[in-house]
Each structure stands twice: as C-alpha cells, then as structure tokens.
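Entry for heme C complex. Fields follow.
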Amino acid sequence: MRQFETGWTIFAATVILVASGTPAFAQEWTWPDHPENLQVLPENWTGQRLRPVMTGFTRALGVRCSHCHVGDDGQPLSTYDFASDDNPNKERARTMLKMLGDINQTLKTLEPSGPERVNMWCHTCHRGRPRPMTLGEELGEVYHARGLETALDHYEALRDRFYGRGAYDFGEDALNSLGYSLMAKDDFDGAVRVFLLNVEQSPESGNVYDSLAEAYMNRGDRQLAIEYYERSLELDPENDNAREQLKALAAGEH
Ligand code: HEC
Ligand code: HEC
C-alpha cells in the first residue's frame, strides 16, 4: 500500500480545512485510534496507518469520502459513520482490495521481463474515475440511457477534465464506433454529427473522413460523400475502400 503515502499530507490538510470551515458546534473529527470494523485491511491498523490508504482511495477514484461511507458530502466528518457498512460502495471497495491482493499474488508468479516487478494499484485501473470504462463503453452507456445529445455533452466534459491524463484514449476510435452504432440504427443524421465531431478532433485521419463520407452517402448526400471520400484518399492514398466508393458514386450506383 506504499503508493498511498506520497502526497497524502496535502489531502489530510484539505480534510482538516474542510472540517474547520464548519460551524463552531460541529465537533472536530480525528482519525480513530482503534478502527472497529476492518475486515480486509489488518485489524490492528491505527487510524494514522489508515489515513494514507483512505485518502489514496479518494484520489484513485476521483471521489470524496461519502462515495463509500455513510455521510453527506459538505458536512463535517464528525457527522459521518465510518464504521458502518450501509454504503454499498464500501463493500465494493473491500472486494476490490481482495481482488488487488489476488492480482498481485498472481503477478508474483511471473518472472518480470524488466528490472523490477510491476505491481497494480487502484489507480492503475481507476485513473481518477469511480467506474473505469473505456471511452467507447462509457459513451455507449450514456447514449443508450440518455440519448445522443447527452452522450456528446458527456464527451466534451470528459475531454475537458481528462485529456492528457491517460484515463481515456481520445483517439478516433471511440467516436467512430459511436457513429457506427447510430448508423446501424439508421440514424444517419446522428451519425453525421458524431463523425463531424470526430473530424474536428482528428483532422489528419483518413479513416474518420471515410466514415463521414459513408454516413453522408447513407443519408443520400452524394456530393458531400464524394467530397469526403476524396479528402480521405488525399490523407490516406492507400484507402481502397474510398477509391471503390468513389467509382461506384461516379457510376451512379449509390
Ligand atoms: C473507495 C471507497 C472508500 C473511500 C473513498 C474512503 N473509504 Fe474509508 N473505508 C473504506 C473501506 C472498504 C473501509 C474498511 C476496510 C476494511 O474492511 O478492511 C474503510 C474504513 C474506514 C475507516 C475505519 C472505520 C472503522 O472504525 O472501522 C475510517 C475511519 C475511514 N475509512 C475513513 C475514511 C475517510 C476520512 C475517507 C475520505 C478521506 C475515506 N475513508 C474514504 C473505503 C473507502
Ligand atoms: C483490475 C482493475 C481494477 C482495480 C485494480 C481496481 N478496480 Fe475498482 N473497479 C473496477 C471496475 C471494472 C469497476 C466497475 C464495476 C462495475 O460497475 O461493473 C470498479 C468499481 C469499483 C467501485 C464501485 C464504484 C461505483 O461507483 O460503482 C469501487 C468503490 C472500487 N472499484 C474501488 C476500488 C479500490 C478501492 C481499488 C484498490 C484497492 C480498486 N477499486 C481497484 C476495476 C478495478
């Protein structure tokens, strides 16, 4: 659990600041000397030993204490019931701790190919998010639950927050597959919107222009289809699909 040690002081200071900014009647909270309900971590750990682990959890998942504990965000920590198991995320986190233990046990059976063994941590998967999904999976989930508009807003929000942090791959594939799942449902307007956004994000990729051209073709916009297949070929002269489609369009087959 050593990775949690670095930087925890800053976090602890934040916790204290939050607690001290509360009304005078709120009791100041301190880490318990003897935690009463440790089931996975060593039972005899003190609160001081627990502190870097808990603050590490919040950073690994990008959440506050209330994500896993019973208590309201913004309320003093003295009003929380940390020993309670009523928040289902606490049990999920216990399962994760055990899983991580198993993974690291398994990794120990490998002879590492580099100078040192690579361990896994909570943040190896989570990278600042409570539910670690690929960008494609996450956009698909939002799209199916709440529609295209929300999915595109979500894309922008994720890009603003996570771009360059390694949590998501903002390469062309995520929007490309979202666009194709719309196309599969004959939502060509939706697909065009998604592919236009992708072209904006990856203007040097022949593949994204090819997808956009296909959506225009399916929508019946022949001229635009030709324009974008040509653009795709310019960027990627080996795109045989674009060449074929252009021939077919010229012959009036589409
Ligand atoms: C990702 C989930 C998660 C987050 C976030 C989290 N905790 Fe925990 N916490 C746990 C789990 C799981 C346990 C119990 C570990 C066990 O059973 O070994 C625990 C136990 C505790 C305990 C011991 C309670 C007792 O008496 O048994 C305290 C105190 C605690 N957490 C404080 C905090 C504080 C303060 C924060 C915010 C800075 C925090 N935790 C954030 C999951 C979390
Ligand atoms: C091997 C990858 C991996 C590792 C390592 C990992 N997690 Fe997870 N975690 C996941 C996945 C995947 C989910 C989503 C499960 C789902 O909702 O289907 C998840 C979900 C969770 C959740 C539920 C969050 C929510 O809002 O639904 C908690 C809490 C959690 N993890 C805590 C932890 C903690 C704490 C650690 C380190 C001890 C950890 N995880 C390590 C992959 C991982």
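NOTE: The radius of gyration is 25 Å.
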